[in-house]
Amino acid sequence: MSGMFSANIRAVHKYKKALVVGCGRSGKAAEALLRSEDCETLSLDESVSDFSDFKSQVSSFCPDVAIISPGFSLKHPWIKDLMERGIPLLSELELGWSRRHCPVIAVTGSNGKSTVVKWIAEALAQAGQTAVPCGNYGFPVCAAVMLPKTPDWLVIEVSSFQLETVHEFRPEIGLLLNVLPNHLDRHGTMEAYRNLKLRLFENMQKTDTAVVPFDLFPNIGRKPSNGWKTFGTEQGADFQYSDGWVGEINLTGTRFANEILGVAGAAVAAVCAACGVPAAAVEASARGFEPLPHRTALVAEIDGVQYVDDSKATNLVAMCAAVKMCSGKVHLIAGGRPKESDFSLAKDLLAQRVSHLYLIGEASGAMQAAWGDAVRCDSCGTLENAVIAAQKQAKPGETVLLSPACTSFDQFRDFNERGDCFAAAVRGLSGKDGSV
User: Fold this and answer.
1) For residue 78, what is the domain's CATH number?
2) Which residue has the higher pLDDT, 47 or 281?
3) How many structural domains compose the chain?
């Protein structure tokens, strides 16, 4: 891998004056990296600047590059103004990547990215290699490359938002987990969203490894790398999940022993094989895996009913996956601010697996209209009301599942706060603490 990595290094472009758009975690990390290189920086954020102030400050500063935080789309007035001025745009992801001192594994997809990034990093650790998770999960990339000790690998979670403003970004190993309806409120169409995801591979060379779903591979288009590997449940995939196994890797008895997370296991196996990680290390990391918060996490079991927090499920496909993973009938709490307008995708599954729906937030009306003739629906307004209503209906052996299929921004700061609210409401049921 060292020779491959050496071939991937290009001359680092140093900037004299840089504008950083967005002052969140990634923006602050980009600013720190640039200043460490004696670059003069100006950071602007909508919380302190309006459009006229933004234009005035940019005009007086005259940057030679603008580092864009992922929260700003190409349609944002500030970004459109920068493009009209001819100022080059660069993702914080690519700025950090260009300063790396080790090879990169990049993971993108609609669902499951953070879990896979964590698993890959832990499998590498099991094999005696050091890895730093970064990007959307862990450190911002600009912060990761400034760590005092260089790891063997950076494992980067890459979003479609970040891929809007990359140019030369090229991982040594790139993984596309899936392409499912998501973020269409920003990207407009599935074709545009899919094309953004495929930008992960556009600079890859014959020495690199590209890992993609078996069913998507025929439609990828240009395939510059000889190192394409496929994964899935289908016969013919290079790495196939079947009945709890991926090749020599035994996942039975782990949370990955199902067709939803088992596919992720096949993807992880493909990436780890490219890194030289033995199957035993992948299996050991699966058996010791602690799930990330708010991802099908068991909060409590009360009177024989399991209460599961899947607040991270912000689209329909993620919600459907969570429902499929539950045992027994499901009492589903869903709703929030929708990213999608067509809820019909989930209707048949809900009719089969869900006993009762408890709807919250802005999407309540649309979900009631889409699903009300297939599943009993109650409009509960708040998450606390939904938990109380679900407790009254759920029977031993059933599951109360928070899997909203929507963002949280109508009622909460983020999905973490929404999941914490669910856990607090569960633990407060009838004055019981619950037992896991």
Assistant:
1) 3.40.50.720
2) 281
3) 3
